[in-house]
Amino acid sequence: MLTQPGTAAATDAAVLSDADPLAAFSDRSLLIVDDDKPFSTRLARAMESRGYHVQVADSVADGVSAVETRAPAFAVIDMRLGDGNGLDVIARLKERRPEARGVILTGYGNIATAVTAVKLGAFDYLAKPADADEIHGTLMAQPGERADPPENPMSADRVRWEHIQRVYELCGRNVSETARRLNMHRRTLQRILAKRAPR
């Protein structure tokens, strides 16, 4: 909830919000719903360091349950989950807390579906892999406005590397299966995995 203007507290909050827009919100609860454990763990830590009070769920069922227990002020929800569609969580969140800001994360091939998600109640959508700065900026954007582009966005090489790492983790770190799914030669993949992440 935003502090009402016209008070000393509101003035202080306005000054703080220039540097940290989240400071203007009294409720900083954030629900992350994603079945990619390495990604959700990294994101949870990064969002906590930015001042959010984070809860993580890894399925539609757990996400809906978390919303029923205490609807958060913010949510970051993956479109595709093992037991269904993240839109079900967004829909329930908007029923329980209409002013909540929910961001849908989607693969590059699902942007059209993500636009539909916004029409159904999502505050905005981002293509994966999205980093914490990008997600935070989107959650803090004014309604109807797109977030400012990040100052230091991931390079194309880094986006590719993150995608390969994600598929590798989802394949249980099985190099052969990852190479097959990425339609990549096994030795090429091994060379990529042996290198440090590009900037």
Automatic annotation (TrEMBL):
PROSITE patterns recorded: RESPONSE_REGULATORY
One Gene Ontology biological process: phosphorelay signal transduction system
CDD domains to which the protein is assigned, alphabetical: REC_RegA-like
Residues the record lists as 4-aspartylphosphate modifications: 78
UniProt entry keywords in alphabetical sequence: Phosphoprotein, Transcription, Transcription regulation
Pfam families reported in the protein's UniProt record: Response_reg (PF00072)
Coiled coil: none
Keyword tRNA processing applies: no
Sequence ranges assigned to domain Response regulatory in this UniProt record: 29-143
Protein name: Two-component system, response regulator RegA
Organism encoding this protein: Methylobacterium phyllostachyos
